[in-house]
Design brief:
With 278 residues, the chain is mostly beta strands. Helices cover 0% and strands 61% of the residues. The protein has no helices and 20 strands. The chain has strands spanning 4-12, 22-25, 29-32, 40-49, 54-66, 72-75, 88-91, 94-98, 102-110, 118-128, 132-136, 145-161, 168-178, 181-190, 196-206, 209-215, 219-221, 226-234, 242-253, 259-270. The strands form 4 sheets. Strands 1, 3, 5, 6, 8, 10, 11 and 12 form an 8-stranded mixed beta sheet that branches. Strands 15, 16, 17, 19 and 20 form a 5-stranded antiparallel beta sheet that branches. A 4-stranded antiparallel beta sheet has the order 2-4-9-7, with no helix packed on it. Strand 19 and strand 20 (259-270) form a beta hairpin. The N and C termini lie far apart (55 Å).
């Protein structure tokens, strides 16, 4: 009998669903070393498994950078100054979740004086020790498909220290109309030494009147770097030909916790509207 085995590793950066087999609180750790009373700062993470599950996890750290697309890039053997792992200790490093019980992971960032000003980071991975085997019908005679599934959950850990700055702007905003949608393309620039995490919305305006409003994708701009962000804005609220404006409004909190707005506009024309078009 012929056998086919497919190895599948499922990497989950953050588990948010209430129906998930594992719950993590908080899903991101953001620490301010300036709040520390000594040369160290502590934090904790609560991990909870499913009510009828038995899962054993091992815990290990990795260093990462935020890419220009806002994704996490794991970097091996880094010598960068913002490498946080060397200053972090956590307990336990392996544990079992059973019957919905909660496990607390305690984390200490020590020797803060050795950490440079600005942002340092790492990600704390939880990986199940025992891979799960899932058999799937292949639809072919004498062929079986086996998935070996290993789940990895990552909790990003950020530390800001000393004189850190969170500052961003939209450098470029392009717009393209395709059928019944607007494709937007942004180039955002972070000029500070700490990341900027933003939320936002897009508004469609005609003759100074708001026609429609839609959320845009939230993302993160790395410190002293750029982010290229693309989004799709529907045109379902447009009812006539004419000149329109898309206004992008992004919000983030600066290093003092003050809410900042980034606003940028661009125009487009609707010249072929029909009542059945949208």
């Amino acid at each position: 009998m012929k056998n086919f085995c497919l190895i599948l590793f499922v990497f989950l950066l953050i588990t948010l669903s209430s129906n998930a087999a594992i719950k993590v609180m908080p899903t991101i750790l953001e620490l301010n070393a300036n709040d520390a009373r000594g040369d160290y700062i502590t934090a904790s993470i609560d991990i909870q498994g499913g009510a009828d599950e038995l899962i054993r996890f091992k815990i290990y750290p990795e260093y990462f950078k935020i890419s220009q697309q806002g994704t996490m890039e794991i970097i091996e053997n880094s010598q960068d100054a913002d490498y946080l792992i060397k200053n972090v200790r956590f307990v336990p490093n392996e544990f079992t979740l059973q019957n919905g019980r909660t496990q607390k992971i305690r984390l200490t960032v020590s020797n803060l004086k050795s950490i440079p000003d600005g942002e340092s980071r790492m990600v704390l991975f939880l990986e199940d020790v025992d891979a799960k085997e899932v058999y799937l019908p292949s639809g072919k005679k004498d062929v079986s498909t086996k998935l070996i599934v290993k789940t990895r959950v990552g909790i990003p850990v950020y530390l800001d220290k000393g004189r850190f700055v969170k500052c961003a702007q939209i450098e470029k905003f392009d717009i393209e109309k395709q059928n019944n949608e607007i494709k937007t393309s942004l180039k955002l620039v972070s000029t500070g030494n700490s990341k900027v995490r933003y939320t936002g919305k897009a508004q469609i305006i005609k003759d100074k009147k708001l026609i429609g409003e839609y959320p845009v994708k939230n993302s993160v701009i790395s410190a002293n770097n750029v982010l290229f962000a693309n989004d799709t804005i529907p045109l379902k609220d447009i009812r006539e030909n004419g000149n329109y404006t898309v206004r992008i409004i992004l919000q983030y909190s600066d290093e003092k916790g003050k809410l900042k707005n980034i606003i940028k506009e661009n125009q487009f024309i609707i010249d072929n509207f029909t009542s059945t078009q949208i």
